[in-house]
Design goal:
Elements lengths: L1 E4 L2 E7 H7 L8 E3 L7 H5 L6 H13 L5 H11 L6 E5 L2 E5 L9 H15 L7 E6 L4 H9 L5 E8 L5 H8 L5 E6 L3 H13 L1 H6 L1 E4 L5 H20 L5 E6 L4 H11 L6 E6 L4 H8 L23 H7 L4 H7 E5 L2 H15 L5 H16 L6 E6 L12 H4 L6 H6 L7 E3 L3 H10 L2
Parallel strand pairs: 5-13, 6-7, 6-9, 7-8, 8-14, 10-11, 10-13, 11-12
Antiparallel strand pairs: 1-2, 1-3, 4-5
Helix pairs in contact: 3-4, 3-10, 4-5, 5-6, 5-10, 6-7, 10-11, 11-13, 15-16
The structure holds pyridoxal-5'-phosphate and the ligand N[C@@H](CCOP(=O)(O)O)C(=O)O.
Enzyme class: lyase
Cofactor: pyridoxal 5'-phosphate
Pathway: Amino-acid biosynthesis; L-threonine biosynthesis; L-threonine from L-aspartate: step 5/5
Length: 436
Amino acid sequence: MKLYSTNNHDLKIDFQSAVFNSMPQDKGLYMPVEIPALEQDFIQHLDRYTLREIAYKVSFALLQDDIPANDLKSIIDDAINFEAPLHPLDEDTYVLELFHGPSLAFKDFGARFMSRVMAYFLKDNEQLLDVLVATSGDTGGAVALGFLGVPNTRVTILYPKGKVSEIQELQLCSNGQNIRAIEIDGTFDDCQHLVKQAFADDELNSKRRLTSANSINIARLIPQTFYYFNAVAQLFRKGKREVVFAVPSGNFGNIAAGLLAYKMGLPVKQFIAATNVNDTVPRFLETGVYETRPSVQTYANAMDVGAPSNWVRIMALFNEQRESVKEMVKSYRYTDEQTVQAIADIYRQFNYVACPHTAIAWLAIQEYQKQQAPADDTFVFLSTAHPCKFPDIFPAEIAAKIDIPEQVNALRQKEKIATAMPVDFDAFKAFLLTAE
Ligand SMILES: Cc1ncc(COP(=O)(O)O)c(C=O)c1O
Ligand SMILES: N[C@@H](CCOP(=O)(O)O)C(=O)O
């Protein structure tokens, strides 16, 4: 697969280079030069395939020139070793549960695939790979588990102090080995900015081999297409064909992957990007003005992103045409009060406990339904994290219903180890240069 920079269409590189360089020097993002259309026979008969078979077919269409078929299959089988089931709320509404991986968030798809792809490409005796990741809550934990013990790699996680849940923090800060955490006295956007500054710093790049495990890295995006195909496969088995996906969105990597799947031929009627009050994208779609703002802290903390890095990819998928994006992507925003109310409503109506991010996607479906003429649609909202990661958000009655997975009980026994740091690039650079 050849990739170009969204800031310079003449700059083209191969997949392996894009994985290790993660971001072009011109600060664009890498996108496939050509998006392969999947065979109609495969699309029409998705229901015949398992998640892993789908993952292999989709990734092979993209990466056949980069990773031999058998190696790709081994990577998939190792990385995607958990399911993404659809849970019915009613006849036409389903939750796509993406939290059955080790870190209990959808990030496991991207992080596990990416770590295995990097390990595959890394050669013995190469310079240590410094993997940087900014997190607003979930990415860091998934990346930590994805890279834990991977030889020749070292992960540095930056997270905003006081803005992640206790369980998320333990997932970031209790790994040891080749994983270390920095607690930044700022917002997620500050963390993301520090990481981007590191990639642009000549001295740092001459002395360290840096790469990103954020969704700016194309290796994170590809595996996130798998579960959209697999959701449609599950719906086909139920005889359902017209699907509307609602995606809780922050950095817009998840929905960008859904739109990539759509461009590869996945039949989808509509995407809905649901945000909290960090509403850069819904404002842009309404007004045409793309204005990033400092992020605001909310209950859906992993979506507290004021400058969503993947939006440029979505614009690129639609040839920079806002009107075309608007046709395929509706976008609505919600406050914390609405989020808490939605959690209670979902619980009361369906006896289902949704995390705050997931609840926002459900709200967006309600809004979309109000605005459209009735149709024979099936609604799928993505559940991006296990509710146990956010125990403080739920009223006691609902919290009591949450099944706590074994790995969370084990986490609570562990010690938090993190380096405290202000929002100061010099301090971050010194840390990367001096620490062994
Ligand atoms: C639980 C959860 N929901 C939603 C999101 C938003 O996803 P994206 O940043 O891909 O838009 C995130 C973080 O990325 C998350 O951790
Ligand atoms: N919501 C994310 C923020 C990082 O986004 P990513 O798209 O780069 O993974 C998180 O949970 O950390």
